[in-house]
Amino acid sequence: MLSVTVRSALTLLLSLWSLSAVSQTYPTRQITIIAVLVPGSGLDIIARAYGEKLSQSLGRPVIIENKPGGSQVVGVSALLAAPADGHTLLVATSAAMAINSTMFKALPYHPLKDMVPISLYLKSPFILVVNPKIPAKTALEFIQYVKERPGKLSFSSPGAAGLPRLSMEIMNAKFGLDAVNIPYKDTAQSIADISSGTVQMAFAEAGASQALIRDGRIRALAVSSLTRLTSLPDVPPLAEAANAPDFEAVSWHVLLTRAGTPQPVVNRLHAEMKRIMA
Questions:
Q1: Are 78 and 67 in contact (CB under 8 A)?
Q2: pLDDT digits over 46-67, tens only?
Q3: Are 254 and 92 contacting, i.e. CB atoms less than 8 angstroms apart?
Q4: Can you tell me the distance from the alpha carbon of 206 to that of 251, in angstroms, rounded to the nearest whole number?
């Protein structure tokens, strides 16, 4: 009869062999990356770019499956419904991983217990954009314009939660404004309706709004980061433009997998993303 010590050693060796085998054979099929925002959003565009590079390095197809809605809960739920084997991943933002916990009394997931981070690969500032018919040409002029019209102007946001809405609510509180939130199901429509005048303003995703800015269909007044965007060098940070040095609102994008995914698979994905981003 084997001693307890020998049995324990054999169990450990078998476990290590199993983990090594998993690392060497992964992936065994197509990988799906669930994107929590709609096609064409900045998150979606960047996820597709990284997905293509992951496909090249892993030797398997990588597809992007957009599952927007529910303040990113729809996408998270889809990840948690998939096997914990690393063949289904999720791209989410700070809304799913941090803000939702403060906005909702109950969530169908725990951001720290149900998911494992692979790579925090992007920080994403927003652009304060307004309908071009609004006479304000600077952030300070716009703040005064909104302040003189309490409750009469509205701002869009992609979903009821998320940093675009939170950024505007912070602006409301900091400058004594009373702009009303109108939540949308997707980013593109929330920005398009500023151009049409359905809503007057928003902190918009940079990637999804710059074409409309270039075409003059919306006006950019400030960015939510502490530094200017290289693509919009003439648009100042709100911290600078409105004499509010402590104002900063920057989201982040993170690649995740389900908790319970074998650690060698997580390590492999992390290493590939680190190499791709280098």
A1: yes
A2: 999 999 999 999 999 999 999 9
A3: yes
A4: 11
Phi and psi (nearest 5°) for 272? -65, -45
The CA–CA distances, whole Å, from 182 to 89, 159, 164, 206 equal 30, 9, 12, 19
Query: pTM value?
Result: 0.80
Handedness of CA 273, 41, 221, 247 (dihedral sign): negative
Distances (CA, A) of 77 to 43, 196, 211: 18, 34, 32
Residue 275 CA from chain centroid, whole number: 21
Q: Report all structural domains of the chain as residue ranges with CATH numbers, in order of start.
A: 28-123+252-277 (3.40.190.150), 125-251 (3.40.190.10)
What is the C-alpha separation between 249 and 157, in angstroms, rounded?
14
Q: Where are the alpha helices (DSSP H) in the chain?
A: 4-25, 42-58, 73-80, 94, 100-103, 139-147, 163-175, 187-196, 206-214, 238-241, 263-277
Q: What is the CA radius of gyration of the chain?
A: 22
Q: What is residue 228's three-state secondary structure?
A: coil
Tokens for 92, please give them.
């989410």
Q: What is the pLDDT of residues 88-113, one digit of tens each?
A: 999 999 999 999 998 888 999 999 99
